[in-house]
Design brief:
This protein is of the alpha+beta class and about 180 residues long. The protein has a single domain, classed as Rossmann fold (3-Layer(aba) Sandwich). The protein has five helices and six strands. It has a six-stranded antiparallel β-sheet with strand order 2-1-3-4-5-6. Helix 2 packs antiparallel against helix 5. The site of magnesium ion (MG) has 2 residues, from helix 1. Magnesium ion binds next to helix 1. Homodimer. It comes from Dongia sedimenti. It is found in: Cytoplasm. Required for chromosome condensation and partitioning.
Length: about 180
């Protein structure tokens, strides 16, 4: 399992100023009053791993993740999230980067869409999604269950439940790679 070490947000939802969250081993929860941004943090994690659905980010369109302004602060036009991974045990496939630390970043410019980087080099959304599928985590991973999803899992059709089991078994990465190969 790769260890996520740091999440950095800038202009993302309610996190208008640069905010860094150190993810230390053993962290078990985020607590805070209603509306303080706990779910926004988890969504930032999902977003940087390649989430493509604005709805799953609780928005109407993807630009809604950009800080939209408050009574005394103007809206921003850029949101950025960076996720740092500890890669000392080389769990991230070498094609992405063979460094001890991997930084994945995603940025969205209002009206312009998203761009991704892996350790400073431009990457496609697909590359980032495959990277996380290979390390068995990711935007749609069973490891991230949002409020309301538990019922959906219980009521899922067998085929959908199978994909959850495949994800848990760590073979989703193989499917992503097969799909990628078929597209070529
Ligand atoms: P709860 O305990 O109720 O689940 P929470 O800590 O999970 O609360 P979030 O849902 O993460 O809270 O944060 C909600 C806050 O984020 C709201 O105040 C909302 O206005 C703010 N917010 C969401 N999107 C944006 C945006 N694009 N710009 C500015 N603020 C935003
Ligand atoms: Mg919440």
């Amino acid at each position: 399992m790769v260890h996520f070490t740091k999440l950095r947000l800038h202009g993302f939802k309610s996190f208008v100023e640069t905010t860094e969250l150190a993810i230390q081993p053993g962290m078990t929860g985020i607590v805070g009053p209603n509306g303080c941004g706990k779910s926004n943090l988890v969504e930032a994690l999902r977003w940087v791993m390649g989430e493509t659905s604005a709805k799953r980010m609780r928005g109407g369109e993807m630009d809604d993740v950009i800080f939209g302004g408050t009574g005394n602060r103007p809206a921003r036009n850029v949101a950025e999230v960076q996720l740092l991974l500890d890669n000392n045990d080389r769990k991230v496939p070498a094609q992405f980067n063979n460094a001890n630390e991997i930084e994945i970043s995603r940025r969205i410019d209002r009206g312009m869409g998203s761009s991704y980087k892996v350790n400073g080099s431009e990457a496609r959304a697909r590359d980032v999604q495959i990277l996380f599928a290979d390390v068995s985590s990711g935007a749609h991973s069973t490891a991230l269950v949002s409020q309301g999803r538990i019922g959906a899992i219980i009521n899922a059709k067998p085929i959908d439940r199978r994909s959850l089991l495949e994800e848990a078994a760590g073979i989703t990465g193989l499917h992503s790679r097969r799909h990628e190969a078929e597209l070529r």
